[in-house]
Amino acid sequence: MTTSQSQNYDSSLDKVLHKRSDLHLLRKLWHISTGSIGLYLFSATQYDQTFWAFLALAIAVVGLSMDLARSKFQKMNHLVIKIMGPLMRRSEKEGLSGLPFYALGVSLSLFFYRKEIAILSIMFLVFSDPLSSFFGVLYGKDKIMPNKSLQGAVAGFFVCYLITLFYTMNHVTIGNHILIFAVVSGVIGSLSELISAFNIDDNLTIPVVSGLGMTVLNHFVTIFP
Q1: Does position 200 have pLDDT exceeding 70, yes or no?
Q2: What's the pTM value of the predicted model, to 2 decimals?
Q3: Rounded CA gap, 86 and 89, in Å?
Q4: What residues contact 155, with CB distance under 8 A and at least 6 apart?
Q5: Distance (Å, rounded) from C-alpha 91 to C-alpha 75?
Q6: CA pair distance 129, 138, nearest whole angstrom
Q7: Range(s) of the domain holding residue 214
Q8: What is d(CA 115, CA 109) in angstroms, rounded to the nearest whole number?
Q9: Are the beta carbons of 52 and 42 closer than 8 angstroms?
Q10: 21 assigned to some structural domain
């Protein structure tokens, strides 16, 4: 392939790939659906938490290996983008995709946090991340950080708050402590997404930071004894 042909091909690939500021509904649906399937399998099967932690870690390693291979072999990169392009961003064309960070975040949560908090932190990743982005792209006029808006942060808070509220209501006796835990968890979840503004992938920060925050919170407002 000549230099001119390569440039034209790269230009055609850019038309397939989305910018971070795009609504990119297909990526959000993929994010939610695959995460939901993973959560269902984790809850419905007999394999223990450690098994799923190692499986997620293996996926992270495979994803990272593929991204590194793509950066070295142009033909492989073009093939991957041709297949997965509708789900990818332009920033991922030559760099790392979200997959290894997503899988690593899930893996670390499963390794280090108790089951209930690990599930909550992964649910934050699966649902809050795409939904806060959705509202941020559509209505995010008040920027509080680069690529982060007040509207998106508020949406992230409410999603994390509602997830925590309904999840805990199904596990413990209803009381004011649940409401307090849910509100603070909503704040933690929203902040964990904002941290990604400091060039850290939110697929990693959301489950790890929110899981850590809820673990500490659970010592003061005990929901899961």
Answers
A1: yes
A2: 0.89
A3: 8
A4: 131, 132, 134, 135, 136
A5: 18
A6: 14
A7: 3-220
A8: 9
A9: yes
A10: yes
Residue whose token pair is 């920033």: 91
30 confidence band (pLDDT: 50, 70, 90): very high
Letter for the amino acid at 121? Answer: S
pLDDT of residue 20: 64
Which one-letter amino acid corresponds to residue 25?
A: L
Would you say residue 115 lies in a domain? yes
Look at residue 174 and tell me whether its pLDDT is greater than 80. no
Distances (CA, A) of 174 to 115, 169, 171, 177, 218: 20, 6, 9, 8, 16
Examine residue 225 and state whether it is found in any structural domain, yes or no: no
State pLDDT tens for residues 178-198: 999 999 999 999 999 888 767
- Taking the C-alpha atoms of residue 62 and residue 190, their distance in angstroms, rounded to an integer, is 29
| φ, ψ at 160 (rounded to 5°) | -65, -40
Looking at the DSSP bridge assignments, the partners of residue 89 are 18
- Least Cα distance to 86 among 22, 148, 155 occurs for 22
Averaged confidence pLDDT in the chain:
87
What is the helix (H) or strand (E) element at residue 145, kind and residue range? Answer: strand 143-145
Cβ atoms of 163 and 123 within 8 Å: the answer is: yes
Kindly state whether residue 204 falls inside one of the protein's structural domains.
Answer: yes
The 10s digit of each residue's pLDDT in 53-112 is 999 999 999 999 999 998 888 888 888 888 888 878 887 777 788 899 999 999 999 999
Specify whether the CB–CB gap between 194 and 148 falls below 8 A. yes
**CB neighbour list of residue 197: distance below 8 Å, 6 or more residues apart:** 145, 146, 147, 148
Q: Domain total for the chain?
A: 1
